[in-house]
Design a protein that fits this description.
single chain; 91 residues; alpha+beta; SH3 type barrels; five-stranded antiparallel β-sheet; 2 helices; 33% helix
Length: 91
């Protein structure tokens, strides 16, 4: 399982590094939880980017908007806050 998460992290880092000069693991990313299997959620970060993130730090369910940092969901956020963050990220 850890190897799988490390591969997902490496792929996400590579994709994001081609878009931006910032390391995506230096900041929390906003996304929407699509599904959860065990302790791992599939999170849509927008623009076709899906990542796997651990849910052990929060009470998360599909449809929640969340902040993801270093492969972990660190906070569930409300829809309005998520939309503001996503708008800022797109600019």
């Amino acid at each position: 399982m850890i190897g799988y998460l490390l591969v997902c992290r490496a792929i996400t880092r590579h994709v994001r590094s081609t878009i931006s000069m910032h390391d995506p693991y230096d900041l929390a990313q906003t996304g929407k939880v699509l599904e959860i299997h065990g302790e791992v959620a599939t999170v849509d970060l927008g623009g076709g980017t899906l990542i796997k993130a651990k849910t052990t730090m929060t009470d998360t369910k599909p449809g929640d908007y969340v902040l993801v940092h270093a492969g972990y969901i660190i906070r569930v956020i409300d829809v309005e806050e998520a939309e503001r963050m996503l708008d800022r990220w797109r600019q």
